[in-house]
Amino acid sequence: MARKQFGKTWWTRRWLEILEQFGWANRLQRGRSYARAGRVLDVDISPGHVRAQVQGRRVRPYTVEISLAVLDDGQWERVMDAMTARAVFMAKLLAGEMPKNIEEAFEAAGVHLFPSSDEEIDMTCSCPDWAVPCKHIAAVFYVLGEMFDYDPFLIFFLRGRAKDEVIEALRERYTSEDLSAEKREESRGMTLEESIANFWGQPDALRDLTPRADAPPLPDMMLRRLGDFPDRAVAQDVRETLSLAYARVSQEALARFQNGATSPTPPDDE
Predict the structure, then answer these.
(1) Mapped to the 3 state alphabet, what secondary structure does 213-261 carry?
(2) pLDDT band with cut points at 50, 70 and 90 for residue 245
């Protein structure tokens, strides 16, 4: 029977790596065997708090509680601003993925996504073991990592913001238009009737503009946003086929742009 593996994703490996850096490597190893044996019976996550039941040697499971400070509204606003400033962060988060350098957004906001020291984590267990973390707490840390593997947004939730809140905040920033009345008037331009004579001409504001194009960080971002297919039996084949098609379309569009085929062709005079 294959042994259960923990840390399938970079963010879970990062979570476990940080815990080991606190000098808990030996204790974590004891907890890992408990986690692999399925002794963690129940885990409940809420902002800033984890409560779990772990089966030890006694009949009645032990209660484990782990607390981590949540970020306040002002801190989350700064984090969101930092995320919005990085296009790749926006693309991956809106596609339901965790960017590999996401910690940089938190650091730019003056906070941490993962705990920076063991003093930031409060933990208790109802077992008689004096060591902290005991093997029951350590087992919960591993199971948390396993849960993060399947849903990385649980890390955000533990810090105070649910996935839907993060996604909605990013969408609002992406689609918002912060134009004053004066700027809206300036951007209005001429009506179609006023500009019909030179409709296909080049506006003065575009004469010195140098266009550029880059391949999208996730060619199949829209496909990912659609979620799972109803028929799971063919979902993988369909997703792989469409993902390949999206990638080829992106490559073709980029190649055409680089070859200069970017401007619309004006219609022939009738």
Answers:
(1) CCCCCCCCHHHHHCCCCCCHHHHHHHHHHHHHHHHHHHHHHHHHHHCCC
(2) confident
